[in-house]
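Please, is this right?
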Amino acid sequence: MRWLLWTAGVVVGIVGVVLGVGLLLPGTHTATASRIVRGTPEEIWEVITDVEAFPSWRPGVERVERLPEERGRMVWREHSATGPMTLRVTEWTPFFQLATRIADEDLGFGGSWTWELIAQPSGTQVTLTENGEIDNLFYRVISRFFMDPEGSVTDYLDALERRMAEAG
């Protein structure tokens, strides 16, 4: 019986420490990456706004379903191994700027992604900025200590570069 109480105390203590650390960590973050990608802003715009084609070039995206537009803006749901996530367009300036926001409010995290496209002599400078929000205290600790803060934006740009290279 004493062993069981001691083990339960250790588990409760560990959970308490993790929650305490999570409370001390900021609930928001910003990650930005930029690089020159092969193609014109128009060609890249076509790729980053063709949501139905995401599974063909974005690792982890298994399928995408278009949803009814909201206030004239595109909405879709991406399905991956971690589950579905609904996104909506919040800014649409063709060939220059696109912004999306996670529409789901029950994921424990949320935020927005903003793409900026600037023509360059050797292609297009694509800058991707993630403004993330993490409500779940456990996920805050995991993301802070075990994940690359710029990982999702750099992974996306890697995939975009491969896709544009394949397009020729």
The mean pLDDT is 87.
